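Project standup — Tuesday

K.O.: blocked on the structure for the chain from last sprint. Re-posting the sequence here as requested.
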Amino acid sequence: MEGDEVERTIMLTGRSTYIISLPKSWLRSMGVGKGDKLKLYRRGPNEILITTSMIEPKDSGCKVVEISPKRTQMMRAALSCYIDGCTRIILRAKGKSFLPTHLEDLREFVKRNIIGAEIVSESSKEVVIQVFLGPPEFPFDQALRRVYWIMSNMMNNLLKVLEEECDEELASSIVKSDDDVDRLVYYLSRQLKMSLRSVKVMEETGLTDLKDAVDYGLIVKFLERIADHIVNSARIFMGENHIGRELRTKMVKALKEAKSNFDDAIEALFSLDYERIEDIVERSRKLRWKLKDLINRSTKEERGVLSLLAEHLARVSEYSSDIAEIVMSMALRRTRKK
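H.V.: unblocked you, prediction finished:
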């Protein structure tokens, strides 16, 4: 079973071939039997990966889900199956029929949130969603860089909002950009989940190690949270706020520091350069104290808005620091392999 561990003794057969035995229950659970072929991959000086020749993930393909005909359940089921790696998702109404308004909302949800998916068939009792886009067409690295570009642009726009003493239209555009981040995060999560099940998908994704897939999963989650804090910062400026010009200037400086930490962490990720990571962690710690000092120096009228904004900027920096620490682990793992 998944997660089980056994120890086997290597035996010699003939003069040049070593053999090991595999648990019968494991092979049966994977649908492997006598005469089937296994593939072996050398992953490092002390690691060998054994996989079946049928290396497509079991959950890819068609998945049928019976759900109550409710708007939120329809969307949640579609997204869950998508992230799980399904290429054909069939939603069937349990009990009552799907309402026309619910079907319309589902169409909009799929269009807005699920990259590479289309509703190919629908009725009051059944909806069929087909996923046409996979790792070869939109590689993991390209999607990750796209997320970074969008988030960097969101931060640049947030700087303009602060510097120009509130531009509600620009702040609103930052909030809308979060939909693009979410779509890519769902797509990246789908690729990573499929990579954990399939060597073929992992290689198509461009990953070289199962441990990398786990690390990237955490990084993607941190990116999603950073985007949320950027959006919540922008929402502060979509209504009345009370921050004086002097404090605005200081918050611009704090945002630039948070963005610098974010940029450096992502640059380290793409280059796997860990030399500056300690500096990122230390800068993040110092920024938290700077923001706390700004709040203490603010007026009672300013403090409420300022406290919210300061917390969001601190969290952007701290999640960037978390990404940097994961990058250090990944980079050191590469060094050990060499």
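K.O.: great, moving the ticket to review. Residues 300-337 form the longest helix (38 residues). The first strand starts at residue 11 and ends at 13.
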